[in-house]
Write a structure and sequence with these properties.
This protein is α/β, with parallel strands linked by helices and 346 residues long. The protein contains 11 helices and 14 strands. The termini are far apart.
Length: 346
């Protein structure tokens, strides 16, 4: 058995294709790893597998580990990002099924696969690997606050799990399609699994978190864009710390604020209201100016997944009129998204 201490340098280094494991979750927001891989690495995803009682689906074929292995799968990826990054005891029988079927396990949780005795012993017995990607680089620096060369964009959210990663991936792709040198910088386990590199910011010791964001977006050619995946929300009662570290450490020249239409309560913290887009823009610019006085907001990424197209277009248009900024849903694309890209590059 081999246990990976850190993420491989390329997605091809991970055993693939994948069977996506959805645990026993009933909240779609906690399946963002599975959805992210389905949407941004579909060629690596062969199907999904879940415990009894799960109600979330990616729409991929439902397969047992044995069926997936017979179809060519080489690993089962935990597609869940739950509060605290836990691996509940109820999941363990399903994880054992995957090992026994001949699949490696890939996890991005705070809980390490190799830290669960029964999984470690089963991996040895079946000659399988336990691969944890939520492992930060060793010897990260304390942030210097030094201004670095190159251009940087950071996605900032009003809440968790509402489109910061999709927005960053979409913008990085759009920049490259326009002939610009742009890199998506992953800061969470899903982004790392998609990109093959990055820093899992929420696994970094707090004193080194802003330094990790500096490490993630180093000096670059003056024309190069680093498009940094945001995490959490500056207003979130649990995760604001990682959001602020990314803001200070990445020193963005541009922010794009991400918001989900209709989301009124913080995910996992329903006793807290989601802040307004206006409040989020103001807070991000005030705090971000500490390390980059020239920071600006280019516009808003609006997650309209819950709406039909006509209602989505109306929401985009009304939000743009209210804010006086470009607003788009990157998944829907179109002219509104092109205007948002224009504003980022202006």
């Amino acid at each position: 058995m081999s246990i990976a201490a850190a993420v491989p340098h390329a997605p091809e280094a991970l055993p693939q294709p994948y069977l996506l494991f959805l645990g026993d979750i009933v909240e779609p927001g906690y399946a963002k790893t599975a959805f992210g891989l389905r949407d941004w690495a579909p060629e690596r995803c062969i199907g999904e597998f879940a415990c009894a009682g799960a109600t979330v689906s990616t729409g991929l074929p439902r397969l047992t580990p044995l069926q997936a292995r017979a179809l060519g799968a080489r690993a089962m990826v935990i597609g869940v990002a739950n509060p605290g990054g836990r691996i509940p005891p109820a999941w363990v029988p399903s994880l054992l099924d995957a090992l026994q079927a001949g699949l490696d396990l890939v996890g991005g949780m705070h809980a390490r696969l190799a830290g669960i005795d029964v999984l470690r012993h089963a991996a040895v017995a079946h000659g399988r690997r336990l691969i944890d990607v939520r492992e930060p680089p060793s010897e990260l620096p304390v942030a210097s606050g030094r201004k670095r060369t190159g251009k940087r964009l950071l996605t900032v959210g009003t809440d968790c799990a509402l489109g910061k990663k999709y927005t960053a991936l979409s913008l990085a792709r759009a920049f490259r399609e326009r002939g610009l040198d742009a890199t998506f910088r992953a800061s969470g386990q899903t982004g790392i699994l998609i990109a093959g590199a990055g820093v899992p910011m929420d696994a970094v010791i707090a004193d080194f978190a802003a330094g990790a964001a500096e490490f993630l977006s180093p000096d670059a050619d003056p024309a190069h864009w680093d498009v940094v995946e945001g995490q959490g929300s500056l207003s979130h009662p649990a995760y604001a710390g990682v959001s602020l570290s990314l803001l200070h450490g990445s020193q963005p020249d541009v922010i794009v604020v991400c918001h989900a239409v209709g989301r009124e309560r913080m995910l996992g913290h329903a006793h807290y209201l989601v802040p307004s887009i206006e409040e989020t823009i103001d807070l991000a610019l005030r705090l971000g100016a500490r390390t980059n006085p020239a920071i600006r907001c280019a516009g808003v990424s609006l997650n309209t997944a819950a709406l039909e197209d006509a209602a989505a277009q109306a929401a985009i248009a009304s939000t743009a009129a209210r804010l006086g900024l470009p607003v788009a849903d990157p998944v829907r694309g179109g002219a509104a998204f092109e205007r948002l890209v224009d504003a980022c590059l202006a």
